Amino acid sequence: MDLIKSIRKYFAPSFRAVITQVQQLIETLKIVILQVNNFQSFNIRKPNNVHTALKDGLKFAFLLFTLALISSCDYNRRTTGWQYFDDMVASPAYESYTPNPNFADGKTMQPPVPGTIPRGTVPYAYEKTEEDRALAAATLENPVVFDKKNLDRGKKMYGIYCMQCHGEKGDGQGSLYVSKKYTFPPASLLSEKMLANPEADIYHVITVGQGIMGEHGSMIRPADRWKIAMYVKEVLQN
Ligand code: HEC
């Protein structure tokens, strides 16, 4: 089994690649034969003047050069073949998903240092609990200005991320639920409770999720979350 494995590994770059290699080999052989013919013709002939000698010398040099070129061809894309000038052709760097002996966990790609946050992001201070939901609703304020452009953006994002469950009107009759592909009833965003809740409440639910609904904070930017909340409040609930 090991033998078969290693043979397969050797020929891994697919059958087509092998054919290409053979075609290349034939092409180079043609060149070699041509050169050898030239070489023979110069062997039989006596160099009768400096000019011919120079020409034949050049031919011989070209033959050597061709042979050197052929021998530097690689066998597959994972090896560099023989290199005459190898500076910076093959990168000694580890690739992201390869094992790495230099780190304790043996991985090349390292996780962020605990406690660090990506540049430009602000950590969300509230958890997926009822208390935090109420706290976020009472504390956070929508920084996005109320205008048609932002409402349109909110509508678009709602159409992408919410409508399939909560429905075009926000009544919870989204296509996923109506077609019974998603069986848990999505909450109506037009309920008495939701009519009373502020935009920040919707922002919170989008960010961390609610009950069975998953978080969307990792998919939707903060500004877009506010625009969705705005759209729900100002358009769907009116
Ligand atoms: C995969 C289906 C699904 C998607 C997509 C989805 N939701 Fe939900 N959502 C639900 C379900 C189901 C509930 C009820 C959760 C529960 O009660 O456990 C819910 C609950 C909510 C609630 C709380 C309602 C209440 O009465 O407390 C809000 C607000 C909400 N969703 C807004 C959104 C918004 C805005 C989006 C788009 C960014 C969205 N949801 C995307 C399924 C979904």
TrEMBL record:
Pfam families: Cytochrome_CBB3. InterPro entries: Cyt_c-like_dom, Cyt_c-like_dom_sf. Keywords: Heme, Iron, Metal-binding. Residues 149-236 form the Cytochrome c domain. SUPFAM superfamilies: Cytochrome c. It comes from the Bacteria. GO terms for molecular function: electron transfer activity; heme binding; metal ion binding. The keyword Iron applies. Gene3D superfamilies: Cytochrome c-like domain (1.10.760.10). This is Cytochrome c. It comes from Draconibacterium halophilum.
